[in-house]
Amino acid sequence: MLEMPEDTEISLDRPPVVNIRLAKHRDLPSLTEMIAALAAHHGDIAAMTEEQLERDLFSATPWITALVADAGSDGLIGYAILVPLYRAQEGKRGMELHHLFVRDGHRGHGIGEHLVAHARAHAKAAGCDYLSVSAATGNISAHRFYEHLDFVPRPVTGMRYHQALA
Questions:
Q1: Which of 115, 25, 18, 117 is nearest to 75 (CA)?
Q2: Which residues face 66 on adjacent strands?
Q3: Residue ranges in 10-81 assigned as alpha helix (H)
Q4: φ, ψ at 52 (rounded to 5°)
Q5: pLDDT tens by residue, 66-95
Q6: Which positions ≥6 away from 114 have C-beta within 8 Å?
Q7: Residue 69: CB atoms within 10 Å
């Protein structure tokens, strides 16, 4: 599930130029660090390695897509990870906005909105019919953020099951 980290008292000036682009090999250390920061925010420990992220982003058959918010000399200040979805009964392709993260101090400047807009454009270019995102039930600020961006809440029914394959 996706949750937006709470904003702190820290607020940095918005960089004059923020470029939202596809992740590149050189971004792996910063992406790995930001993924760990999001995991820590949720009380988790990121077990993912830079090598796994490289495999999933840049192999012959990439598993995920990552968009980054590049602030030039300030480095990467946010990212979004997209994962393909499919509704077989409808014949519709979609993308799950699996992660959305903006570094502390850079929240509230529209960076998250720009990442979502680029995620939407990427999904459309890939022939997708929809973009999906989830947020924890109690994360009202994330709910408001996504509803502000015209996401429509859809209640989850049933249970999701998991089976390890190792």
A1: 18
A2: 81
A3: 28-41, 50-58
A4: -65, -40
A5: 999 999 988 999 999 999 999 999 999 999
A6: 18, 20, 69
A7: 27
